[in-house]
Design a protein that fits this description.
CATH architecture of the largest domain: Alpha-Beta Complex
Structural class: alpha/beta
Largest sheet: 7 strands, mixed
CATH superfamily of the largest domain: Medium-chain alcohol dehydrogenases, catalytic domain
CATH topology of the largest domain: Quinone Oxidoreductase, Chain A, domain 1
Shape: globular
Order of helices and strands: EEEHEEEHHEEHHEHEHEHEHEEHEHE
CATH class of the largest domain: Alpha Beta
Bound molecules: nicotinamide-adenine-dinucleotide, zinc ion
Helix content: 25-40%
Length: 342
């Protein structure tokens, strides 16, 4: 089968021929119907040698049709259309029992890695899923339109749900970075909170997208952003700031624009840090760096999509075009999410 692999440190991913995998006991093989490209793939490909075993088949947003079942795998049938919950955990610990496999403390020591982030990913013709519990039935939803709900939808949903007490009617939420995650974050905020939503980006096209998907205000992410947010909120600041970039300038905007008792969610893996404490962040402010989301939250995200409250803007690519799609992502010119259809 064909797969998109990151093979050489510093080089672009390559489309290569690899053996079609066979499902082991308890595993499920999917024929991939769609795979989303995330900015975290770019992060993975920026890491030094040894961070990930190479070659690595990329793609941690996956959808497929059940194609073959390993010994003992039950609960789905060949032909079922499914999404993959990618934040794989051990399935046995307290966090996993709550569906929060994204925070499984045993995954690391057991060598359990998500597809595309250690295990072979979804940017291929076939994908092995380690357990039926990591599948969510898609039903009538279109796989191409839905695949990025597994990360670009789930990750902001998880961050927003944990900020809900801060976001009643009359509150303000700021989303920094209106890319794959950010444009869904704006819609989720509109759907499940009472907040006025202010979106920031450095690109005019992304600001236009932000308005189209429901942002009340869309502002340039520059030295005037803090002043604007303070002015829009009558000097109070934003009750929640979702930083989908995580760089030094965006964390500085977050720090200066969050309200007292507000929350800053650092979702972007820009690598910057935010000093938290007296005379840095406002009284009572919380700073959190959440990772992905839980299995039950993914089901809630799908329900939101089914109700029409949220959608993912997608650009379609073939497997052969995946390297080009990554280049466009690097340039910042993808509108919403790039989705590969093998
Ligand atoms: P993306 O490339 O689709 O979007 C990034 C957006 O940020 C673009 O619109 C870009 O114009 C904008 N941007 C860049 N610099 C900016 C600045 N200074 N101010 C405002 N906007 C700016 O990326 P994505 O796939 O949405 O991912 C966003 C981030 O979230 C990445 O760092 C990714 O690695 C991370 N991520 C984290 C998790 C998690 O579990 N925490 C999950 C998925 C992705
Ligand atoms: Zn991701
Ligand atoms: Zn666990």
């Amino acid at each position: 089968m064909r797969a998109v692999q990151y093979r050489t440190i510093g080089a672009e991913p390559e489309v290569v021929e690899v053996p079609t995998p066979e499902p082991g006991p308890g595993q499920v093989r999917l024929k991939v119907t769609a795979a989303g490209l995330c900015h975290s793939d770019q992060f993975v490909m920026s890491l030094p040698e040894g961070a990930f075993p190479l070659p690595l088949t990329l793609g941690h947003e996956g959808a497929g049709v059940v194609d073959a079942l390993g010994d003992g795998a039950t609960g789905v049938s060949v032909g079922d259309s499914v999404l993959v919950y990618g934040a794989w955990g051990c399935g046995l610990c307290h966090a996993c029992a709550q569906g929060a496999e994204n925070y499984c403390p045993r995954a690391g020591s057991l060598g359990i890695q998500p597809p595309g982030l250690g295990a072979p990913g979804a940017l291929a013709e076939y994908l092995i899923v380690d357990d039926v519990r990591h599948l969510v039935p898609l039903g009538d939803l279109d796989p191409v339109a839905s695949v990025s709900l597994t990360d670009a939808g789930l990750t902001p949903y998880h961050a927003i749900v944990s900020s809900l007490p801060a976001l009643p009617a009359g509150s303000t939420a700021v989303v920094i970075g209106v890319g794959g995650l950010g444009h869904v974050a704006v819609q989720i905020l509109r759907a499940i909170t009472g907040a006025t939503v202010i979106a920031l980006d450095i690109s005019d096209d992304k600001l236009k997208l932000a308005r189209e998907v429901g942002a009340h205000r869309a502002l340039h992410s520059d030295e005037h952003a803090v002043e604007s947010i303070r002015s829009i909120t009558g000097g109070v600041g934003a009750q929640a700031v979702f930083d989908m970039v995580g760089s030094t300038p965006t964390l500085e905007i977050a720090r200066q624009s969050v309200a007292m008792n507000g929350v800053i969610q650092i979702v972007g893996i820009g690598g910057a840090v935010l000093p938290t404490g007296f005379f840095s962040t406002p009284y009572g402010a919380t700073v959190r760096a959440p990772y992905w989301g839980t299995r039950s939250e993914l089901i809630e995200v799908l329900d939101l999509a089914r109700s029409g409250a949220i959608h993912v803007e997608t650009e379609r690519y073939t497997l052969d075009q995946a390297p080009e799609a990554y280049r466009k992502m690097h340039e910042g010119t993808i509108r919403g999410r790039a989705v590969v259809v093998p």
